[in-house]
Design brief:
Blueprint: H1 3-18, H2 26-35, H3 45-99
Helix pairs in contact: 2-3
Organism: Rhizophagus irregularis
Protein name: HTH CENPB-type domain-containing protein
């Protein structure tokens, strides 16, 4: 499959992701290719179906990786905030003790 064909497939696929009403099947994608101005490399329906499955899978993995990274960042931020709160509490306790020292 040529880079041009892959670019069209990505466009069809991503437009369907952006708007569910724009989703088209592999068969319809091939028809769109046939309607385009003289593409010399129109893939078979099975080829397009396989590409959709692989591309969709890679997008899901990419999104999952992004969510994991975001969760890790959020967890790190929570840990840092809790540590800061603990330090502030300890600092506050130290200040309170200093106020009540009798000389």
């Amino acid at each position: 499959m040529t880079a041009t064909v892959k670019a069209y497939l990505e466009g069809y696929f991503l437009s369907g992701n952006a708007n569910k009403t724009d989703r088209i099947s592999a068969k319809d994608m091939v028809k769109e290719f046939q309607n385009l101005a003289k593409l010399d490399d129109v893939p078979e329906i099975k080829t397009v179906e396989g590409w959709i499955a692989r591309f969709s899978s890679s997008l899901r993995k990419e999104y999952a990786t992004q969510r994991i990274a975001e969760n890790n960042n959020n967890i790190s931020a929570v840990v840092i905030l809790r540590r800061q709160e603990e330090l502030e509490i300890k600092d506050c306790d130290v200040r309170k003790k200093k106020k009540f020292v009798i000389i």
